[in-house]
Prior knowledge:
The protein has helices spanning 21-31, 64-74, 81-92, 101-106, 113-131, 137-154, 197-200, 220-223, 225-232, 259-269, 296-304, and strands at residues 5-6, 37-40, 56-60, 179-180, 191-193, 205-211, 271-280, 307-315, 330-338. The protein is α/β, with parallel strands linked by helices.
Amino acid sequence: xxxxxxxxxxxxxxxxxxxxxxxxxxxxxxxxxxxxxxxxxxxxxxxxxxxxxxxxxxxxxxxxxxxxxxxxxxxxxxxxxxxxxxxxxxxxxxxxxxxxxxxxxxxxxxxxxxxxxxxxxxxxxxxxxxxxxxxxxxxxxxxxxxxxxxxxxxxxxxxxxxxxxxxxxxxxxxxxxxxxxxxxxxxxxxxxxxxxxxxxxxxxxxxxxxxxxxxxxxxxxxxxxxxxxxxxxxxxxxxxxxxxxxxxxxxxxxxxxxxxxxxxxxxxxxxxxxxxxxxxxxxxxxxxxxxxxxxxxxxxxxxxxxxxxxxxxxxxxxxxxxxxxxxxxxxxxxxxxxx
Length: 339
């Protein structure tokens, strides 16, 4: 029973570092020596963590949708490939479905009415399978991540959900779930978290800790509210043109004026041999919302309290919301060898 597979990088996501992996892994390999544990504390969709599945891996993200994806890719729990493929094939062959939360709130916006009905049915069925213990936690995460990736491939957006494109024919949308090309036999000590990064820092220890905090004022929970809504499946009321839910609890302080203080606090709490910080050079180069919340001086000041710092850079055109058109973007890695 065949089904297409998908890899971890097959999602559009702001700040995704998949294309920068050769640069990041080269810096780590040449400067961090032999190490056994790697932590990605702002993991996003897990692109950087995916390079270290041969280590004891810890991931964290404030968005539940990213936590679920990281659990799918990195949890040490076993999963039944054939069982999941069977479920996915059944989902892909669904026909007419009843009205549900998705049709009532999102029909003919990001998705057609028909696609919304399928998303709503599939999401509810995945939840019921988990409650009935038909699937374990990782299998639940794999099915849910497969659904989120399928939504992302066809969403009537530019890659985020601040708005949908008008006057678009949605009748050709086809929701096709694919099996995740996920690894088995991962390190049994792997852990995935969905908590505030500064709180997590107090309770973990890792040889290498990688930090890729939000750069600017654009909140990820605003850009991916619909994905987060489907992942959490609490069926909240939505409002406004973009059909957003209440995201108050998901706002990151790293997108605000308090970012430098939060960053300094985080660095001070980390128990690590090496701290690697990824941050681009948009300090005062884009429009106001694109400008970096933390200056180079502030990054260096915090890191130098912990040890010796080196800086590495590479030119890079990131996936953005399209509001900045600069061609001299640089991704920098600040590497601190902790004393």
